[in-house]
Design goal:
Layout: H1 5-16, E1 30-40, E2 43-52, E3 60-64, E4 73-79, H2 82-86, H3 94-106, E5 111-116, H4 119-122, H5 125-136, H6 141-147, H7 158-166, E6 172-175, H8 179-187, E7 192-196, H9 207-216, H10 243-260
Parallel strand pairs: 4-5, 4-6, 6-7
Antiparallel strand pairs: 1-2, 2-3, 3-5
Helix pairs in contact: 5-6
């Protein structure tokens, strides 16, 4: 059952003159601007448009069922990706994530997808294309952002948190592989009671991108479908081992770790030559 006409009118009336101290460090204030029906190939939804005092961008919530006042609402927070969402780029898994989330939520009793206008992990479309150019020259997705003067991920979720508050969602189960997203929403006042994994099948064009997100950005993606805990990144040195034993263990573990990771050159990583390409090895 979707939001009723009475519920929609109540939400619009409550938000028409809404003002608050805001959420997060930037005191983001959000209010619902409009609500409409959105039948789609993924299910029956309602779309909610929001105004905010922060970035003048049109963020929306795609809602299935009655989520107001509900606990443990399945929520996907999706950041805009023109090249993936609209153009079908194979360099990322954004379109697969978007469509899979909508299809999943459309089959549930209730759920919501927040579509945030945070293109390119928050660096914007033009800079994302610049980052793609660096990736074509050998950078990974994190190195490219850093080389352009950005952080690994420039996104933040105070607007998303206030959107959920405006919809009167009491608590959520977040559809994500990104623990930082969970932490950010919690920091901004959202009760996150669980995580629903959201892992897509890699293709030859985005395999390295996804591996980089897992290895460098902490995304919970296991390509070997085996449990890998953070402490497994350390060589298994235990008390009582002598120096020779420790050296043997470290050598074997270093070889194992190197075999699991794509080759990178630490001497040239993140450096640009005068033409914008990677610097060459020095003799």
């Amino acid at each position: 059952m979707s939001l009723s006409p009475l519920q929609i009118q109540d939400l619009l009336d409550e938000n028409r003159a809404h003002e608050c101290d805001g959420v997060g460090e930037d005191h983001v204030c959000v209010r619902i601007a409009s609500i409409a029906e959105l039948p789609s190939r993924f299910g029956q939804f309602q779309i909610v448009a929001f105004y905010n005092n922060q970035d003048n961008k049109d963020h929306v919530a795609i809602v299935h069922g009655d989520i107001t006042g509900k606990e443990d609402v399945p929520v996907r927070v999706h950041s805009e990706c023109l090249t993936g969402d609209a153009l079908g780029s194979l360099r990322c898994d954004c379109r697969d994530q978007l469509e899979t989330a909508l299809r999943m939520i459309g089959q549930m009793d209730m759920g919501v997808l927040l579509y945030l206008r945070q293109e390119g992990r928050g660096i914007g479309l033009t800079n994302k294309i610049r980052a793609y150019g660096l990736q074509d020259r050998g950078y990974d997705t994190v190195e490219a952002n850093l080389a352009l003067g950005f952080r690994d991920d420039e996104r933040e979720y105070s607007i998303a948190a206030h959107m959920l508050m405006s919809l009167k969602v009491k608590s959520i189960r977040l559809i994500t592989n990104n623990p930082k997203k969970i932490a950010d929403l919690r920091k901004n006042g959202i009760v996150v009671n669980g995580r629903i994994p959201h892992i897509m099948q890699a293709n030859p064009y985005n395999q390295f991108y996804l591996e980089t997100k897992a290895r460098k950005s902490g995304h919970l993606i296991d390509f070997e479908r085996t449990q890998r805990l953070p402490e497994q990144d350390d060589a298994p040195i235990v008390d009582g081992m002598n120096g020779q034993q420790q050296a043997v263990i470290r050598k074997a573990y270093d070889a194992y770790t190197k075999a699991r990771k794509p080759e990178t050159n630490p001497d040239t990583r993140g450096k640009l030559d005068a033409k914008g390409g990677k610097t060459q090895n020095e003799p």
